[in-house]
Design goal:
Elements (H helix, E strand, L loop, with lengths): L6 E5 L4 H12 L3 E6 L5 H5 L6 E4 L5 H8 L5 E4 L6 H4 L3 H22 L2 E7 L22 H16 L7 E6 L1 E3 L9 H10 L5 E3 L5 E2 L1 E3 H17 L3 E7 L5 E2 H11 L7 E3 L12 H7 L7 H15 L1
Parallel strand pairs: 1-2, 1-4, 2-3, 4-5, 5-6, 6-11, 7-10, 8-13
Antiparallel strand pairs: 9-12
Length: 312
């Protein structure tokens, strides 16, 4: 399928994944409508803010959302959210207003305009403890504010899938990393910045948590393949995992960053943690979307470091 000329609405377009998605859609000659909460963001880092139509809006405001859908998109990728696991618990009202009520507004507008909808969810909904890999049919056990809000948002999508005019899919992403990310509180860019400056990366916890990491271009390619499938056939809240299918400890991740940057700096760990163990089964995406990661853990880190070496 060609994206050329397709009208695509991307919410949360100034965010890390949203900006990467908009950039890839532009490469494919789609007509991108990007909703943003404020003008400053990562669309500028990608240098594409003047190449797409941007709409200032608040996802929690139904009238604002409806105006965005008046642009006539054929498909919407819904990424607008309070996405920081730590920050989500600081203001529960705002988190649930944005992540849950915002998704309700988006799903309702998509239904009214008969626009296909890809809701972007998270590995955090599974609850962070597995001895193998999470598959899409497992019970969701996430209990943090962020995970709970995403579970509730998924439930809204499943409710709307009962309407005959709706076409909805859910994409659960693992821990995404890559270049053009200015949030240095995140593990990968934060560690790269510290090592570049000659300082020890500061890691909260013991470094024992096991994470499934996915390079951003692989994540975006997965979303695009899912979107293509949706535009070709109807879905009723079908869910797809996008991850690496492997796990790496935080200690290993930060150590590998130092190694690839030619540094002997060791990270400093502080505080205690309840270690998580995350890994996503990606067989469904492989089979039904013909998708799998092109970047390994190491090659993705190499490309990410290459970017930050130039800008830091």
């Amino acid at each position: 399928m060609s994206w050329k000329g397709k009208k695509v609405l991307v919410t949360g377009a100034n965010g890390f994944i949203g900006a990467w998605l908009c950039s890839k859609l532009l490469e494919k000659e789609a007509k991108v409508i990007a909703t943003v909460h404020e003008n400053d963001g990562l669309l500028g880092v990608h240098g594409i803010q003047d190449k797409i139509k941007t709409v200032l809006f608040d996802v929690a405001d139904a009238e604002s959302v409806n105006k965005a859908f008046e642009e006539g998109p054929e498909i919407c990728f819904h990424l607008a959210a309070k996405s920081s696991t730590r920050d989500a618990s600081k203001d529960l009202t705002d988190t649930f207003k944005t992540n849950v009520m915002g998704t309700l507004n988006i799903a309702n507008a998509a239904k009214e305009k008969e626009c296909a909808l890809v809701f972007v969810s998270s590995v955090k909904t599974y609850g962070g403890q597995t001895e193998s890999c999470f598959n899409e049919d497992e019970q969701l056990k996430g209990t943090s504010a962020y995970a709970t809000s995403k579970i509730a948002a998924e439930a809204i999508c499943k409710m709307f899938s009962n309407y005959p005019e709706t076409n909805i899919a859910i994409a659960r992403l693992s821990n995404i990393f890559g270049g053009k990310d200015n949030n240095y509180s995140r593990l990968v860019p934060g560690a790269i910045k510290k090592v570049k400056e000659g300082n020890a990366p500061q890691v909260l916890g013991t470094g024992e948590s096991m994470l499934d990491l996915l390079y951003t271009e692989d994540a975006v390619n997965g979303l695009l393949l899912l979107g293509e499938k949706m535009l070709a056939e109807e879905m009723k809240a079908e869910t797809f995992n996008f991850g690496s299918g492997k796990w790496h400890s935080v200690r290993e991740i930060v150590g590998k960053i130092s190694e690839l940057m030619g540094s002997e700096i060791k990270p400093e760990f502080s505080g205690t943690e309840n270690p998580c163990k995350e890994c996503m089964c990606i067989e469904k995406a492989k089979k039904e979307l013909n998708w799998e990661p092109k970047y390994t853990f190491e090659s993705g880190l190499e490309k990410t470091i290459e970017y930050f070496e130039k800008v830091l």
